[in-house]
Design brief:
By secondary structure, the protein is mainly alpha-helical. It contains 15 helices and 2 strands. It has one domain.
């Protein structure tokens, strides 16, 4: 293959069988580490976690995260629902094996009453941290694009440089707004009612965007756009749209794909840009959450549950990404919109009526 092809030609998604083989090989050290951690956890019962997360619960949360992270149906919303169904929403203060209360923030001059360590706090952190598995899956599947962006950074690929520029422009608005409003979002929007409202609103936005796309673009002209060819203004507009996804239940993937539609990208290309833009967003959220409350999560659940959830999220995300690209190329977003409306109706009946 010539150097020009390596540097400037967009690369298709690799054959999924080859991706799976490479993915499995790269996961072998992680599996080994997971097994070792499980043994160590079992041997250290005296200093074990404050609240056990069943293996089945870790697997369920990993599957929910991996499958929903890149589909336009809201991973955060589904994880909130999963936590409710698995009984991980308790605000009761946890205690250690000696019966002493555990603190997220011990009583101090700044926090006279302290902030108790609860199962809900640990579970909310867990849902964000295991996104690292989904990130790893996309990095492995789209490694050509990441290499191209890296080459662009060093001046060896003009297309790679433009793609890197657009990814950063689409990332900066949501990173800024998310950082400034993070505590308010955690306090007021992580609820079933907020998720239901976002599911319904997002569904109607998707149905409108799908009709708009079909009415305004022919098949031939619509499919020629590449994420690297977006103008800086359009890339920034997609980033501003992505801020809507800070409302749990909206779906970062959904608003990015809709923004890609409006910027002139075909469904598959809009999804691909969504995957790339999502990585710094997800990584930033995982790092921030890990730094802020990761030690508390480990104290509650232990390392083995976190590694298992991340591993399951990686495998399920790889499958979900492949499915979404194939599905969008033939069907568009409408089916996902109808799913969101159905899910919102079920949740309203179960929780609110």
């Amino acid at each position: 293959m010539s150097q020009s092809i390596i540097l400037d030609t967009p690369h298709p998604i690799p054959d999924f069988s080859l991706v799976s083989l490479r993915f499995s090989r790269r996961l072998f050290p992680v599996i080994t580490l997971l097994c070792t951690t499980l043994v160590l956890d079992a041997a250290g019962q005296a200093a074990g976690p404050a609240a056990e997360l069943d293996t089945s619960d870790a697997i369920v949360l990993g599957v929910v995260e991996g499958v929903t992270e890149f589909l336009p149906i809201s991973s955060t919303g589904h994880l909130i629902i999963a936590n409710e169904l698995l009984g991980l929403e308790s605000d009761r203060q946890l205690t250690n094996r000696a019966g002493e209360p555990l603190w997220y923030k011990v009583p101090s001059e700044k926090h006279p009453a302290g902030v108790p360590l609860t199962l809900k706090l640990a579970a909310d952190t867990y849902a964000v941290v295991i996104q690292v598995g989904a990130i790893a899956a996309v990095v492995l599947m789209y490694w050509h694009q990441f290499v191209n962006m890296l080459l662009g950074l060093f001046g060896r690929s003009s297309a790679g440089m433009r793609l890197l520029r657009n990814v950063l422009l689409a990332f900066l608005p949501v990173a800024t707004v998310g950082f400034l409003l993070h505590d308010l979002i955690d306090k007021y929007l992580f609820s079933i009612e907020a998720v239901i409202a976002a599911l319904v609103g997002g569904a109607f936005l998707m149905l409108w965007a799908e009709r708009w796309r079909r009415a305004n673009y022919s098949g031939i002209g619509f499919t020629k756009g590449e994420p690297a060819d977006l103008t800086p203004r359009k890339a920034l507009s997609i980033g501003l749209a992505q801020c809507l996804a800070l409302w749990p239940g909206t779906s970062r993937s959904m608003v990015t794909i809709v923004g890609g539609y409006l910027a002139g990208l075909a469904p598959v290309k809009a999804a691909e840009f969504s995957f790339l833009v999502g990585l710094p967003t997800l990584a930033g959220a995982a790092v921030y959450k890990s730094f802020k409350s990761g030690p508390a999560m480990i104290e509650v659940f232990g390392w083995s549950s976190v590694l298992l959830g991340g591993l399951v999220a990686a495998v399920s995300a790889a499958i979900a990404v492949k499915f979404l690209v194939t599905f969008l190329s033939r069907n568009g977003l409408a089916v996902f919109a109808y799913y969101r409306l159905l899910l919102a109706a079920v949740l309203a009946v179960y929780y609110l009526l």
